Amino acid sequence: MTEQMAHNVGPSRVDIAYQRHGDPRHPTLLLVMGLAGQMVHWPLGLIDALVGRNLHVVRFDNRDAGRSTHFRAAPPADLPAVRAGDLSTASYRLSDFAADSVGLLDVLDIRAAHLMGASLGGAIAQTMAIEHPARVLSLTSIMSSTGDARVGQAHAEVMAPVFGVPPVHTREEVMARAVRVSNVIGSPGFPTDADDVAARAGLAFDRAHDPSAMGRQLVAAAASGDRTPQLRKLDLPALVVHGLADKLCDPSGGRATAEAIPGAELTLIEGMGHDLPRGVWEQLAERVAATVERGEARRRASR
């Protein structure tokens, strides 16, 4: 579980911080975190549940997150301009995230892996499956969408608390903000441990604090467009998970994702919001493990 650093990863030659959990001889599940998230935002209890189902779990910091390469010299992100068609402040796209992920697999000498992405990480995982199909054995997309602006949009009441507040700069402010945001977008059907939310935010602050990075990642997603036509061409086992209480990414995004991917399994969880509460870990691990096994069966059959 020691944190490691991969250097000169992928076409962009970025540095990627990562951790490995479990036996490398088992099928590899690559965890792709969401907007402004770090690998430490994957709950260890969920990782333990996955490792307990004979999976080799790799989690990592995306570009512009945690201890991976940050693009601080990039132009300030201008989301309204991007949405109006001016992509000049988009420093990179989802394709670059996906290429980083493939590059990390190269460093680890992993020919192909199973993917599990959450929120923006789901969009990155989808993009990786679209653009690098030979490297992806199965896809699990959680609380994500297709890039179609007609689905998966945030509810009006969460916009100001999540996106409309000034940046915070101290460790204490970051921890307090994480708890406030969790209260707005978290899972009303499952108990939330505010101390755990705060502690994880504090840990992320200690690893790296870059208030402008979220804007760059958000613009990258907006500039990448609608993946629906490409998702319809995927041929792999796929699981789509979405909370019915998700206000940051409306469940219509999950439904559209599952509808687009041929044969995808859709799991809608009552009371789950835009987080990974303890109460869903075992259910999620069981469904992901079953999806991985479908991918492994296809790989064995193709030999």
Describe the structure.
41% of the residues lie in helices and 16% in strands. The chain is α/β, with parallel strands linked by helices. The chain has a single domain (4-302), classed as Rossmann fold, CATH 3.40.50.1820. The model has no long low-confidence stretch (mean pLDDT 96).
Which structural traits does this protein have?
single chain; alpha/beta; Rossmann fold; 11 helices
SSE blueprint:
Elements: E1 4-9, E2 14-21, E3 28-32, H1 44-51, E4 56-60, H2 79-83, H3 94-107, E5 113-118, H4 120-131, E6 136-142, H5 156-163, H6 171-185, H7 194-207, H8 213-223, H9 228-231, E7 238-243, H10 251-260, E8 265-269, H11 281-302
Parallel strand pairs: 3-4, 3-5, 5-6, 6-7, 7-8
Antiparallel strand pairs: 1-2, 2-4
Helix pairs in contact: 1-11, 3-4, 6-7
Task: Give the class-level CATH name.
Answer: Alpha Beta
Q: Major sheet: size, sense and barrel closure? A: 8 strands, mixed
Class from helix and strand fractions:
alpha/beta
The sequence of SSEs as H and E is EEEHEHHEHEHHHHHEHEH
Poorly predicted runs: none
Radius of gyration: 18 Å
Give me a quick take on this structure.
The protein is α/β, with parallel strands linked by helices. The chain contains 11 helices and 8 strands.
